[in-house]
Amino acid sequence: MLGVFVKHDRLGSPRLVLVLKGLPCSYGRCRFCPFGLEQGSVRDVIETNRGIVEEALREAERLAPERVSIFNGGSFQELPLLVASWLAPLTRGRVVDVESIPGMVTAETVESMYRLLQPRRLVIRVGFEVYDEEVRRRLGKDFPNTEVYRLSSLRKELRGRGMDVEILSYVLFGIEGISEEKVMESVEKFNELLDGVIAVRYHRYLPGHPGETRVSSVLAEYLERHTLYVDWGDEEWEIAGIKPGGGGT
Predict the structure, then answer these.
(1) Is residue 83 part of a domain?
(2) Is residue 82 in a domain?
(3) Is residue 248 scored above 90 in pLDDT?
(4) pLDDT tens digits, residue range 1-56?
(5) What is the CATH number of the domain that holds 67?
(6) String of b and e for 101-113 (b: at least 16 CB within 10 Å)?
(7) Residue 244's pLDDT band (boundaries 50, 70, 90)?
């Protein structure tokens, strides 16, 4: 799944997506996450990402995208500084998406990213997944809702300092343990407290991961109306050579 991809969707058309090789996630307790399969050593991360960034720069020159989304199977702040510094010519003056666990999103880290990437707007995606704390904890995400409220206040503080910063939450659906009612409740709460929601259709990769569940037409229509973007995962990305559903039963 590593590489450079061009997307045409509601977030931007064309939108350039970089999936970089990351270091092992410092949190690493999410029960459904397969991205640890693609993580590596510092040397491996630097060597692999050099080629990905070079390809992205060529694509950016050809397409002139207004938005660039950067993912590394963990928090952006955990990329080696050398790799992050290569991104500035790609991100300067553009809308830039990065991902992070909530605890790594502070005034200091956001200011550092802003100085480094020089975006027109910095969009930070945080994987809260569901608003209900107990349900979230069962997924291995022990982030209290006080973090949601902290980030809600932080984005206002950063804007007051002249930075165009948005904080979005992922909401996971189609996964055992999160009812459709909880999905809709989560969308409503995160829309109220943050800058919007990206809904992600869960796909199972490994045997120990939770199972997939059917998604009703009612929920599908609700998500299309009330979120910024619904990622249905139609491309069936391979992660370290494993396709969704390859984990067995």
Answers:
(1) yes
(2) yes
(3) no
(4) 899 999 999 999 999 999 999 999 999 999 999 988 889 999 999 999 999 999 99
(5) 3.80.30
(6) bbebbeeebbeeb
(7) confident
Range of the domain at 143: 3-168
Enumerate residues 6+ apart whose C-beta is below 8 A from 238: 1
Picking from 186, 233, 178, the residue whose alpha carbon sits closest to that of residue 205 is 233
Nearest to 197 by CA among 179, 178, 183: 183
Taking only the tens place, the pLDDT of each residue in 189-242 is 999 999 999 999 999 999 999 999 999 999 999 999 999 999 998 765 677 677
Q: What is the pLDDT of residues 144-158, one digit of tens each?
A: 999 999 999 999 999
DSSP at 37? G
In a domain, 144, yes or no: yes
Q: Is residue 15 part of a domain?
A: yes
Q: How many structural domains does the chain have?
A: 1
Q: Collapse the DSSP code of 27 into the 3-class scheme (helix H, G, I; strand E, B; otherwise coil) and give the result.
A: coil
Distance between CA 17 and CA 63 in Å, rounded?
12
Q: Where are the alpha helices (DSSP H) in 64-120?
A: 81-86, 88-91, 107-117
175-204 tens-digit pLDDT: 999 999 999 999 999 999 999 999 999 999
Which among 133, 144, 129, 132 has a CA at the least distance from the CA of 202?
A: 129
